[in-house]
Design goal:
heterodimer, A: alpha/beta, Rossmann fold, 4-stranded antiparallel β-sheet, B: 451 residues, alpha/beta, 11-stranded mixed β-sheet, 9 helices, binds adenosine-5'-triphosphate, binds magnesium ion
Chain lengths: 249, 451
C-alpha cells in the first residue's frame, strides 16, 4: 500500500526528516509515536501534499505510484485522507456544503456519480449520529468556534464520509475525553478492511487499547528508530523515549 | 493629465447636449433647480487628486471619454423581452428603466396598496410638480459637486417612490436599470426620490445590469428621506459590464427612530464609485450600511461613505468587505462625524479586504471626527490574504485549488451575503461572486499585496 524509502525533508534549509523508512501493507494499522518535534506531523503533511516542505531525497510509493508527484487534491482522489492535528477554521464556509463538495469532488474524480442533496443529507446525518457529532455543527462554518473535541469528531466524520484507502490520523486522540476516544477508535475500527490502511499518530498508549495496531513505530530525530508490536507502546508508556534515543545514537 | 480647461469643457459639453423635452419646464422651482445646478458647475472648482474626495480615485479615465446623452425615445425597446433580466422567483413590484428611460409596459406596479406612489419621476414632474417641490427642497447635496450638479441641471427621469404614513409594503419594490446600448457610449442620469412617511416600511432593491459590452456612464443621484419611525431595507446591486463608468450619489436623511439598512453589492464597471451621505437628524435613528465589492483586471471600485450624527442617541454600523483579484483596485473611505450635541452616539465602522493576487491594490481609510465627549465609536480596517493552511485543508479533501479559493472567498463574504433577505437576490449574488472569482487562473500569486 505505502512504501517510504530514505525520505529526507527540510523546511527552510532545516532538515526535519532524515532518511525515513516505512512499509505499510494493505489492511494494516500502524501507530507512529515519538517525542514532540520529532517530525510526525511533517511526515503526515508530506504524505498529504502540503506546500512548504522540500523533499531532498528518497521516495514514497503509494499503490505502486509515485505519491510525491501527485497534486494534493489528486492524492485525496486516490484515497489518502489526513485527519489533522490542528484542523483549521474556515469562516463562512458551511460545514455541510464543504463536505458535500469534498465528497462529490472525490466521487467525480473516481468516475462515480455525485450524490444528490437528499442522498448526501441522509448519509451525513447517519454518520454524524454514529460519531456523536451534534447535527447543529453541520450547519455552522467548518470548525469555526468548535471545541477541540468537536473539531476532532468533525475530522472523523469526514474520514467516514470519504472512506479513504489510506487514512493518516495525526493526534486525533489528543485532548479528547474518554467517550470521544472510544468514538474515534470506533471510527477507525469501522474503516478497517483488507484493502485499507491506517496510520495513527499518537502520544498515548490508551488509544491503542481500543485500536490494536499491527505495528508500532517510534519516530525520533527524523527517522523511524524502533519498530515493534503493541508491547513497544506499553514499554514507551513506562520508560519514555530516552532509552530509545540513546540506543539509536 | 487633463487640464482644468479640458475638465470644464467636459462638463459644458455634456451640459449642452439636449435630451429632448425636459419635463416640468416653466415650473418655477424646477427651473431654479436646473439653473442653480448650471451655475454650480460654472462655480465649483475642478476635480483633482489634492481634494480629499478624489485622492485615491482618478477621474481622468472618465473625463477622457465623451458620452452621448440618452434620448427620450423608448420605441426601440417596446418589444424588449424583460425575462432575462428578472431574477427568477423574485416576487416584487417593479420599475424598469432602459438607458435611463422608464418603460411602463415592462414594469409591474399595478396592485400597489393605497397610500403608495411608485412611478416615473418624469411623469410626476410633468403632471404634479407642486407635490415634489418640498421634497426636492429638503434634499441635501442636490448640486454640491460637479456630478450631482450635472444630474440636477439635466434632471429628466428616474424613480419616484412615496410610501404614506404607516403603510407597510409587503413585497419588495424593485428598480431595474438596464444599459443596453452597445454601439454608443451613453450618458444616463437617473434621478430618484424615495420618501417614507412616518411609520412606513419597505424593502427596495435596485439593480444596475446590462449587456456585456456597454461602455456608458451612469451618473445616478438618489435622495432618501425617512420620517419618524420609518424603516427601509435597501439593496443596491451594481453589476454592469466591466467597461462602464458608474457613479452613484446617495443622500439620506433620517428622522427620529427611523431605521435604514443598505446592502451595497458592487461587482461591475471599469470605474465605479458610490458616494453616500447619511444625516442622522433626530434622536434614536439607526443606520446600517453593509457592502460587498469585487474588482479584477481593469476595474476600480470606490466607496465614499459619510455618516453624520447630528443629535443624541443615534446608531450607525458600517461593514464593507472587498475581494480583490487580478489587478483590481479598490478605494474605501468611511468618514464618521459626531456633532457636538450628539451625545450617546454609537458608531462602528469596519472594512475588510481579501487580496487574492499581489497585483491587486486597495486604499482604505476610516476617519473619525468627534466633537461630542460621551460617545461609543470604533473603526477598523484590514487587508489580508487567504491562509495557505485553509487552502491545504480543502485540497486535502479533494477540492481543486480554484474551487477552494472561490469557496474561501465566498466564505469571507458570507457575513454580508447571508444577510440579504430576498432569497433570489442572495442566490444571484453568490452565483455572481463564484463567476467573478472562478475565472482566476491557478498560480502561486498569493503572497503579497500593496496598500
Ligand atoms: N513551517 C515550519 N518552519 C520551521 N520549522 C518547522 C515548520 N514546521 C515544522 N517545523 C519544525 O519541524 C520539526 C518537526 O515538527 P512536527 O510538527 O513534524 O513535529 P511533531 O513530531 O508532529 O511534534 P508534536 O508531537 O509536537 O506534534 C519541529 O522542530 C518544528 O519546529
Ligand atoms: Mg505533530
Amino acid at each position: 500500500m505505502l512504501s517510504i524509502t530514505n525520505l529526507k525533508v527540510s523546511i527552510d534549509e532545516k532538515a526535519i526528516l532524515n532518511g525515513l523508512n516505512l512499509e505499510i501493507g494493505a489492511g494494516e494499522v500502524h501507530a507512529v509515536m515519538g517525542p514532540n518535534g520529532s517530525g510526525k506531523s511533517t511526515l503526515a503533511h508530506v504524505l498529504a501534499g502540503r506546500d512548504g516542505y522540500r523533499v531532498t531525497d528518497g521516495e514514497v510509493r503509494y499503490e505502486g505510484r509515485d505519491l510525491l508527484a501527485l497534486e494534493t487534491e489528486a492524492r485525496a482522489h486516490a484515497g489518502i485522507f489526513l485527519g489533522m492535528q490542528y484542523p483549521v477554521e474556515l469562516p463562512g464556509v458551511n460545514n455541510m456544503t464543504f463536505m458535500r463538495e469534498s465528497l462529490n469532488s472525490v466521487r467525480r474524480a473516481r468516475g462515480e456519480p455525485e450524490l444528490d442533496a437528499p442522498a448526501f443529507l441522509r448519509r451525513v446525518r447517519e454518520q454524524a449520529q454514529l460519531i456523536g457529532l451534534d447535527p447543529a455543527l453541520l450547519k455552522r462554518s467548518v470548525n469555526e468556534g468548535f471545541s477541540g473535541g468537536e473539531k476532532k469528531r468533525n475530522e472523523i466524520l469526514q474520514m467516514a464520509m470519504l472512506e479513504p484507502k489510506l487514512a493518516i490520523l495525526d493526534e486525533t486522540d489528543s485532548g479528547l475525553d474518554i467517550d470521544a476516544l472510544r468514538v474515534i477508535a470506533g471510527g477507525v475500527n469501522a474503516l478497517r478492511a483488507a484493502d485499507r490502511s491506517i496510520i495513527v499518530i499518537t502520544h498515548y498508549q490508551r488509544l491503542l487499547d481500543y485500536i490494536a495496531p499491527d505495528r508500532v513505530h517510534v519516530l525520533a530525530g527524523g527517522k523511524i528508530v524502533r519498530s515493534g508490536d503493541r508491547q513497544l507502546a506499553l514499554e514507551l508508556e513506562q520508560r519514555g523515549y530516552g532509552w530509545i534515543e540513546e540506543d539509536a545514537a | 493629465m487633463i487640464s482644468e480647461a479640458q475638465q470644464s469643457d467636459w462638463f459644458l459639453h455634456h451640459l449642452s447636449q439636449s435630451a429632448g423635452i425636459m419635463p416640468g419646464r416653466g415650473v418655477a422651482w424646477l427651473d431654479a433647480l436646473r439653473s442653480d445646478a448650471r451655475a454650480a458647475i460654472a462655480r465649483l472648482t475642478v476635480l483633482n487628486r489634492k481634494q480629499e474626495a478624489w485622492r485615491y480615485t482618478s477621474v481622468e479615465p472618465l473625463l477622457q471619454q465623451r458620452f452621448i446623452t440618452a434620448g427620450t425615445d423608448i420605441g426601440a425597446f417596446r418589444n424588449l423581452d424583460i425575462r432575462p433580466w428578472i431574477l427568477p422567483g423574485m416576487d416584487a413590484f417593479r420599475l424598469v428603466f432602459v438607458n435611463g428611460r422608464y418603460l411602463p409596459r415592462l414594469s409591474a406596479v399595478d396592485d400597489l396598496p393605497e397610500g403608495v406612489t411608485v412611478g416615473s419621476l418624469r411623469t410626476a414632474l410633468s403632471t404634479d410638480p407642486g407635490r415634489l417641490a418640498t421634497w426636492f427642497e429638503q434634499q441635501q447635496g442636490r448640486s454640491d459637486n460637479l456630478f450631482t450638479a450635472l444630474n440636477s441641471a439635466l434632471i429628466n427621469d428616474g424613480a419616484l417612490i412615496h410610501i404614506g404614513r404607516h403603510v407597510v409594503l409587503r413585497k419588495p419594490l424593485e428598480i431595474v436599470y438596464l444599459s443596453l446600448d452597445q454601439e454608443r457610449s451613453l450618458l444616463v442620469q437617473p434621478r430618484n426620490l424615495v420618501i417614507l412617511e412616518a411609520g412606513a416600511e419597505a424593502t427596495l432593491v435596485e439593480r444596475f445590469v446590462g449587456s456585456e459590452k456597454t461602455t456608458g456612464f451612469n451618473n445616478h443621484v438618489t435622495g432618501i428621506q425617512l420620517s419618524g419611525g420609518a424603516s427601509l431595507d435597501h439593496y443596491r446591486l451594481q453589476d454592469e459590464s466591466d467597461r462602464t463608468f458608474h457613479l452613484s450619489s446617495i443622500s439620506l436623511s433620517q428622522l427620529e427612530l427611523s431605521r435604514y439598512r443598505c446592502t451595497h453589492l458592487s461587482f461591475g464597471g471599469a470605474w465605479a464609485r458610490t458616494d453616500c451621505e447619511t444625516l442622522l437628524k433626530q434622536p434614536g435613528a439607526k443606520c446600517e450600511l453593509n457592502g460587498l465589492y469585487t474588482v479584477g483586471d481593469g476595474q476600480l471600485n470606490d466607496f465614499h461613505l459619510r455618516v453624520r450624527h447630528m443629535t443624541p442617541g443615534c446608531t450607525s454600523r458600517e461593514r464593507f468587505k472587498g475581494i480583490l483579484h487580478g489587478k483590481g483596485r479598490a478605494v474605501f473611505d468611511g468618514h464618521i462625524i459626531v456633532d457636538k450635541d450628539a451625545q450617546q452616539s454609537d458608531a462602528q465602522l469596519r472594512n475588510d479586504n481579501l487580496m487574492l493576487t499581489r497585483g491587486a491594490e486597495v486604499d482604505t481609510k476610516p476617519q473619525l471626527e468627534i466633537y461630542a465627549d460621551n460617545v461609543k465609536c470604533s473603526h477598523g480596517t484590514t487587508v489580508g490574504e487567504i491562509d495557505p493552511a485553509q487552502i491545504f485543508y480543502l485540497r486535502s479533501r479533494g477540492i481543486a485549488r480554484t474551487k477552494a479559493l472561490s469557496m474561501l472567498s465566498l466564505g469571507f463574504a458570507a457575513d454580508i451575503s447571508n444577510e440579504i433577505k430576498p432569497e433570489p437576490l442572495r442566490g444571484y449574488v453568490e452565483r455572481r461572486l463564484l463567476q467573478k472569482l472562478g475565472g482566476e487562473p491557478d498560480g502561486d500569486n498569493l503572497s503579497e499585496h500593496h496598500v
